[in-house]
Amino acid sequence: MPRRPHVLLSAAVSLDGFLDTRPGDERLLLSGAEDFDRVDAVRAASDAVLVGMGTLRADNPRIHVADEARRAARLAVGSPEHPLKVTITHSGDVDPGWRFWHHGGRKAVYAVGAAAHDRARSALGGLADVHAVTEGRAWQEVLEHLYGSGVRHLMVEGGARVHTELLQEGLADELQLAVAPLLVGQPDAPRMLGPGAYPGGPRHRLALVGTRTVGDVALLRYAVRRRPGPDARATAADLAWLATACELAADCPPSDTAFSVGAVVVAEDGTEIARGHSREGGDPHVHAEEAALAKVPGDPRLEGATVYSSLEPCARRASRPRPCARLVLDAGVRRVVTAWREPDTFVPGANGVELLTSAGVTVVEADQFAAAAMAPNAHLRPGA
Ligand SMILES: [Zn+2]
Predict the structure, then answer these.
(1) Of 199, 223, 247, which residue constitutes the final position of a domain?
(2) For 323-343, how does the pLDDT look when each residue is reduced to its tens digit (9 = 90+)?
(3) Distance from residue 183's CA to the centre of ligand 1 (Å)
(4) Domain for residue 230, yes or no?
(5) How many angstroms separate the alpha carbon of residue 357 from the centre of ligand 1?
(6) How far is the CA of 177 from the centre of ligand 1 (A)?
(7) What is the Cα Rg of the chain in Å?
(8) What separation in Å is there between the alpha carbon of 284 and the centre of ligand 1?
(9) Do residues 300 and 183 both lie within one domain?
(10) Domain housing 69
(11) What is the pTM (predicted TM-score) of this model?
(12) 307 lies in a domain?
């Protein structure tokens, strides 16, 4: 299977499914300050943000991480201050005056065909890296090239044509849809998605993985496409590896302020790739999955590997900006087996299972090991 980033489509629509009012009208603001801040957080968590030419032409957006603390957090983990900014053009007809080129981080333009490539390159000069892709397989090439450039999480902010094409080609993994409480009612206004052949047709139901109220909009999160993955049931081999992870948890240096966790990373052929435990090597903050994955960066076996962790990988943490669920995703691991869901003892909302499953990772919970996983943490109590 070609390697490509996790593709998250992000959009805001009216109750009647429109992205905006008709062309020429003043731009419609669908969501308020809270939702713009949510979008800023998603941008900050992405390696790259893609916006289509139609949106650049119509809205002339800046596309950058606005929040200073989020930019500082990216820098602190060695990421660029802003995500890579990406667009795609079929005509090569780009305006070097657009704000897109003059804000935020590095820019990449994918031009479909040699003529579009030459036109975009001469229009933009040094404002962006311009790459040529092939008509007919443009999106596959864009995603493979982004992956090759280190992009693991791609946020796509529209517009309609880009969302429609990625969904129809089965290349989107996740959809985050903010539904605004207003009605546009104009037949010539742009809809979020155009007509066409979507995989599975109207009988295919996306998996709703979360709903949330953000200001006065409803945020709906869907897993669009579950990548083909191994079975979600624990095998005998899974249980043996999980037992090893629980033994590692029991051997952690004791702590009154953090969980004791063990983790083992096992290749598809059943051989161990790496193992780790909390506070390994005298580092008071290191987590088990983090310690294990840090030993084998970029190992090609990780894509078919399973991570066994006595406690679910965290989605938030107090000590470091990159939580373990994110590290698992970034490593390309597609399967996690765990014994115990993290209680809100130290960090509220630390649950990584939802983050992992919404990104298409298979998570197996083998609660027959919950007691073993919990034993080294029995002295930890909320508020203690
Ligand atoms: Zn962690």
Answers:
(1) 223
(2) 999 999 989 898 999 988 766
(3) 43
(4) no
(5) 16
(6) 28
(7) 22
(8) 13
(9) no
(10) 6-223
(11) 0.65
(12) yes
